[in-house]
Each structure stands twice: as structure tokens, then as C-alpha cells.
Design brief:
Strand content: over 45%
Radius of gyration: 19 Å
Helix content: under 10%
Structural class: mainly beta
Shape: globular
Number of strands: 29
Strand order of the largest sheet: 1-5-4-3-2
Order of helices and strands: EEEEEEEEEEEEEEEEEEEEEEEEEHEEEE
Distance between the termini: 18 Å
Largest sheet: 5 strands, antiparallel
Length: 363
Amino acid sequence: MKKNIFRLFTAVAALTITMVFSSCKEEPVKPEENGTEISFENPRYMDAADGNIYITSYYPMGVARFDIAKNTFTGFCKLGQFHPEGIAAVDGKLYIASSNISDENFNYSYDNKLYIVDIATFTLLDSVTIGVNPQIVKKLDNNHIVFNTWGDYSTDFGGTYIMNTDNKEIVDLQQALTKFDVYNGNIYGYATTYNADYTTSTSIYKIDGNSHSVSQILNDFSATDGVYGININSHNGDIVILTDGNYTATGDVYVYTSAGAQRMGAQSAGNLPSKAVAIDGDNLLVLNEGGWGHNNSSISRVDVATSNCTPDYFAQVNGRSLGDVAQDIIIVGSKAYATVTFSNSLEVIDPTNGKSTRIATEK
């Protein structure tokens, strides 16, 4: 069934779809209890621009538009048979990574495209051929984006690239990053190496967005589990490292200053902490992905100044679970927004008290 088909980590069927159809349009919104008439499944990644949040989704494959002021969905842009992942809004356009493509029977092959949608008209403008299996897209500055690819996990193990949005020229940074964040013109990310003895080792890097020079940082970082996320506190440049708990226990949160000094040692969060966003210089919300099908996604709250983490913060405040497979979290203005993929929901959260309103994306 389609709800059981998502992120692929193995080689897939050889079918190749050579044509992408797009249909991006305004759709009337009829008031309902959940505030939306527009329906889609499996919300993924988000970015914000001009008072709206744009959310990629798998079914139908495309991008939803959520009006922050109206607190409702106001449009959906269908984007053919490819699976959109990361998204970045830059200078009036959306840049969307496509990890794979499929036919109506869910036969898959890896995609290698970055698709470009015009925000004003909500139409697909163009696509750019890039590396295999692109994932994360971030704005670097007003005319550059950064994206990474994960490859086919066999002969291609991915890379990290900068694209000039004016002329679409692409620079290979010569350093594959599993996940990354962008702050003050620099790229912070990590790369995990899988060794012959089945152990792993992780290195953390800073890449200068202008000179493209690569330097290894946080060389003293060590953990008994693997790194699962990295984010930068937008208020002070702190580096937040999230670990995976070896997929059997709760993961941890570490915080370092921008100069590389440890500010907070390991604090236990939830199941698979995957992304941290900053409320201010001392307080973070950590999105815990949770296990597929276990309905155990959560949001933790971290006070870095006191080295304190409340792992089940969202459930304590709201009296309910976040849902099944939390995917992304962003803070825009006075609210935080979290997508929960298999619960087909967008959570609108007040960061000051953790209270949330669940908005269904599927009727």
C-alpha cells in the first residue's frame, strides 16, 4: 500500500520515467474543523517565504502552501511522479530535491533532479540535473543554494554541492555530507564512514561558502552511538549534535560553541532525535523522529544554560503523542511548525509554552 512506501535505502527497480507532468494551481478553501479542504499525504520538508510555509509531500507528489496568518492551506502544486524531499525558498523560487521517481504501481528508480517552482505563479519552471538521490536543500545566500545527494548506496555514495541560482552553475565541494545546516555563509555537516569491521566513524566539517575550503571541526567529539543530526542555533551560532541511540535507545543532544568548546554534554532526548531548532540563545526544541509504525515521535525541550532536557515535552504539555515519524521542524515568527509524515499532520506550536494545534493534511 502507498502509505508503507517511503524513503528507500536499497537499489530499486529499473523503470525510468522520462517525462514529468506538473499542475500547480490555486484551489478554493472551504472551512472545515481542521481549517483545510486541501488534502495530501506524507508531509515531508518545509521552508518559509512571504508569509507562507511550503511543504513537500509524497501523495500527491508536490508542494502544499500554508498561509501563516490564516492558519490554513491555500494551494497545492502537483509535480508529477517524483518524490520531493528537501526544499529551499530563494529569491521568489522554490528549489526542490527529488530522491526517486515512480509509476502509478510504485515501481521506483532513483532521480537526479532539482526542480524549480515559481512562488508567484505556483508553477513548475525548470529542472536541473544533479547527482543521484538528492535529499537536503538549504539557502546559502540570496543567489546560492546548498544541496547534498546520498547516491545509490552501491557505487555512488553522494556529495555536497553549491548552485548559483542565477546561472545554475554547480560547484562540487568534494566532501559528501550525510546531513548539514547553514549559518552565516558557512556549511556545517557530518559524514559517516562504514568500516569493513561493521563499525562506523563520523567526522564533522565546516565548509566556507565563499572559498569552499573544508575543515574538520569538533575533533574531540565522541559518543557511543552514531550521529543522526546537526543544526546551528541561529541566535548565537552554537553547534547542536544529535545522536541515534544505536537505534535501540533514546538519542542524545550535545551543544558546542561556534569556537568548538563544549557548552552542554550529552542530554537524553527521544527516539532518533533528528533536528533541533532554537527558540533563543539558550533554549531548543528537538524533533525526535521515532520508529516507523510505532507512533512514538516526540519533541524535547532543552535548556542549554542549565544542561537540562525534558524528553517528552510535547506529550506533557499537550496530553497526546506527536504521532508517527516526525520529519521536519522550523520556527517562523512566533510559531514552530512540525511535519509528521505517517500521521499526515502539521503541528502548529507555540514555542513559549509548547501548546500545539494539529492540522490534518489528509481528509
